[in-house]
Amino acid sequence: MSEVTPIIPQATSKRLPLYYRFLQNFSNAGKKRVSSSELSEAMKIDAATIRRDFSHFGALGRKGYGYDVDNLLVFFRSALDQDEETDVALIGVGSLGTAFLKYNFQKNHNTRIVVAFDPKVPKEGKSISNIPVFHPDMMEEMIKKMGINLVILTVPAKAAQEIADRLAAIGVKGILNFTPARLSVPDWMRIHTIDLSVELQTLIYFIKNDVKDSQL
C-alpha cells in the first residue's frame, strides 16, 4: 500500500516557519531540549495548540522529556525545504518594493529576490541593491528564463489583476500579494494576501477592545 500523506491544517502550516525560527533561537542559546510550555512562553501560543500542531507529524517528542531541539530543527528544516533556496521575483519597486530589495530574504531565510520589475525602469534595466530591475515588458521572458515560480506583488491595486493574469499565463505557482486587490486566479495558483491597512485596522480594533488572540 502507498503511504498516505497527512493533511496538515492551514493554520498549522502557517505556524511552521515560526516554530523553526524559535527553535533556532533555543539552539543558539545552547538548549538541548524544550517543552511545549517553554515554546508556549516564548512564542505566546497556547501549549495545547503547539502539541496539536506537532501531533500532525507523528511522535516528535516524548512524554516527560519534551522535544529534542536538534531533532526538531532537522525535521522542520526538511519540512520547510530550508536547504533548498527559492528564487523570487518582485513586481513593483515603490517604497515597499525598494524596502524588500534592500532587505532581501536570503539573509535570514531560504528565499531570495533575484529579479524585479517596475514600469519606471528604462528598457535596458538597472540595478538596485545589486538586484537587476527590468521594465515589465520583460517580465514573462525573464521569469520563464530564470525558472521562477514565486512572485511578490507590490504594484498599485488597479494593476494587480492584469499582472496576476500575465503570471498565470506563464505558469507561476504562487503570489505573495501586498495589494488590497482580491485577485482572481486559476485553482492551481496559490495567493497569500497581506493587506497592511486591514492588518492595521485589526490591530486598532484589538487595542480598543482589549482583544487578545493567542493563535495569531
UniProtKB/TrEMBL annotation:
Positions of transmembrane segments: none
Domain of life: Bacteria
Organism: Sporosarcina highlanderae
Protein name: Redox-sensing transcriptional repressor Rex
Compartments it resides in: Cytoplasm
Segments of the chain annotated as binding DNA: 18-57
Chief location category: cytoplasm
CoA-binding domain segment(s): 81-182
Family: Belongs to the transcriptional regulatory Rex family.
Record key words, sorted: Cytoplasm, DNA-binding, NAD, Repressor, Transcription, Transcription regulation
Assembly information from the UniProt record: Homodimer.
One Pfam family this sequence matches: Put_DNA-bind_N
Function text: Modulates transcription in response to changes in cellular NADH/NAD(+) redox state.
HAMAP family hit by this protein: Rex (MF_01131)
